[in-house]
Specification:
The protein is an alpha+beta fold. The chain has three helices and seven strands; from the N terminus they run βααββββββα.
């Protein structure tokens, strides 16, 4: 198994960030890759999600299982319909407070059917690119929501 970790600090409450990750209906507005996301079964804490993503110039769809632990601000995911070269692909989102910010960590764990160094490097680069993009989009979206809420609160006080 190979493991990657990406981390980013966000100036927004952990609860808000966690709710944005959990509510897949907002994903098309978050990451710039997802064009469709739908929970196809399960409930708010444990479910299967179907997504359509535009990447590398083409549209692809996939399903994943997601499990949420709101008390610990964690979300686990596992791809269900893998294609070669993946044998396994999953990971976890973690959110915690540090220094007045929310620190979001995204872990990916995967196994390939071909362990050549070139393929592993290519997969790591792709995961790195998508993870950075997702974290940045989550940061921009979360901080924008906080800014809008603050503006709304200030306007109501006047």
């Amino acid at each position: 198994m190979s493991l990657t970790t990406h981390r980013l600090s966000i100036d927004a409450p952990a609860d808000l960030i966690f709710s944005m990750l959990k509510d897949s209906a907002h994903w098309p507005y978050l990451d710039g890759l997802t064009v469709y996301a739908e929970r196809v079964n399960g409930d708010g804490s444990n479910h299967e999600l179907r997504t359509s993503v535009v990447a590398n110039g083409s549209l692809s769809s996939s399903s994943c299982h997601r499990a949420f632990d709101a008390a610990r601000q964690r979300a686990e995911f596992r791809q269900l319909d893998l294609e070669a070269p993946f044998v396994a692909l999953g990971g976890e989102w973690e959110i915690h407070r540090a220094g007045g910010l929310s620190v979001v960590t995204l872990h990916h764990e995967y196994e390939l059917d071909d362990d050549t160094e070139d393929l592993a490097e290519q997969v790591n680069q792709t995961i790195d690119e998508f993870s950075r993009r997702e974290l940045h989009a989550l940061k921009v979206s979360s901080e924008r929501v906080i800014q809008l809420l603050q503006q709304y609160s200030a306007a109501r006080e006047v």
